[in-house]
Amino acid sequence: xxxxxxxxxxxxxxxxxxxxxxxxxxxxxxxxxxxxxxxxxxxxxxxxxxxxxxxxxxxxxxxxxxxxxxxxxxxxxxxxxxxxxxxxxxxxxxxxxxxxxxxxxxxxxxxxxxxxxxxxxxxxxxxxxxxxxxxxxxxxxxxxxxxxxxxxxxxxxxxxxxxxxxxxxxxxxxxxxxxxxxxxxxxxxxxxxxxxxxxxxxxxxxxxxxxxxxxxxxxxxxxxxxxxxxxxxxxxxxxxxxxxxxxxxxxxxxxxxxxxxxxxxxxxxxxxxxxxxxxxxxxxxxxxxxxxxxxxxxxxxxxxxxxxxxxxxxxxxxxxxxxxxxxxxxxxxxxxxxxxxxxxxxxxxxxxxxxxxxxxxxxxxxxxxxxxxxxxxxxxxxxxxxxxxxxxxxxxxxxxxxxxxxxxxxxxxxxxxxxxxxxxxxxxxxxxxxxxxxxxxxxxxxxxxxxxxxxxxxxxxxxxxxx
Length: 467
Known about the structure:
Blueprint: E1 3-11, H1 14-24, E2 29-37, H2 42-47, E3 50-53, H3 59-69, E4 75-78, H4 81-85, H5 88-96, H6 113-123, E5 131-135, H7 143-157, E6 162-166, E7 176-177, H8 185-197, E8 202-207, E9 212-221, E10 224-227, E11 231-233, E12 236-238, E13 242-245, E14 250-253, H9 264-285, E15 291-301, E16 304-311, H10 318-323, H11 330-338, E17 352-360, E18 374-375, H12 378-386, E19 391-395, E20 398-400, E21 406-408, E22 414-420, H13 423-435, E23 441-442, H14 450-463
Parallel strand pairs: 1-2, 1-4, 2-3
Antiparallel strand pairs: 5-8, 6-7, 6-8, 9-10, 9-15, 11-14, 12-13, 14-17, 15-16, 17-22, 17-23, 18-21, 19-22, 20-21
Helix pairs in contact: 3-5, 6-9, 12-13
């Protein structure tokens, strides 16, 4: 008989549901899921032993939920960054002795982009783009002119090719990139710098690095780490990488650990930089690091990998591509990390994955009205069953009503993950899942398209001097 085990998952959307789904598919354990959810997610309600809405994933509400079920919990896992930052691990381990598979609040790297840059500079400076931190003194009105002059000087030193990043967590939103979001200093100042700086917040202006973006997620525990396959994220709202940054419209991975536009030197650069960064962070934080606690956004250039940002949680959407190809039992893996033990985590290197997010009409600034919010996922889940493990659907920002109807909310509604022996096979399956969703939603249609991938390959070849 499988061993029965209780696991608490906090869920913000599709990423949390993918985590819970992985646990329930364990072949070794009979899992009881205790899900604390931001909303009444229909998938979470259906699979949980106990499901409760905790508005905003408020840390006191999560604490109370854990307190009620503490005698049944082997460990807890937050499915998003908020509870990590707010100290879920600190409180549950301190008061209830419930292991929490995430970093402590002190090791939550999302808290400050400035501290991220300082850590990168300390442990792998060659992967750090040039940057400068600016901060306004709100009490000094005359300081504004001096600040603007200093910002202008740095802007022109970088030839206007830079990214503007508020220090505090924005999860990819609120970031401005030259050429994409602004073309002049005045645009940069008015739209991105001043809104973030006017109340005294720190703002980073960093060199724009040309290349192709890659996400790397790392399992960590007990001073050890294990790499996952690389994933490509599509942050921009519209086809052709146009429009504002979003939380991520889709992703693709594999087969293998590399992406099609990578070569051995790219993978070697990522492996080396990740190793040195982890070793450095382990010196600073030690066993405060735990779980999928290092998520690194890289830009591959003609001169090695540069780090865009580092975070202390799994990526969204990247985690969903990763978890569906894990070969090790996920409960075993996370239970080991809960005890500060980690063995190498294995993945099916023969599989590729493509994830497409279906989102409401207002998402990414596409439309002004959501209109009809009612959803029917019956045909989509029927297709998931027919595809026999090649399609996974993870409902996100949606609400199950008292009359059992489902309605979309304001963020990303559902992730459709296709799995196949090639990227294009996986893409076809992902889009097939999207096509079965009955609702007033839209999606990017170029996620992992052959044309898009060939453009990436050509771009990298030109950066390496091959074209």
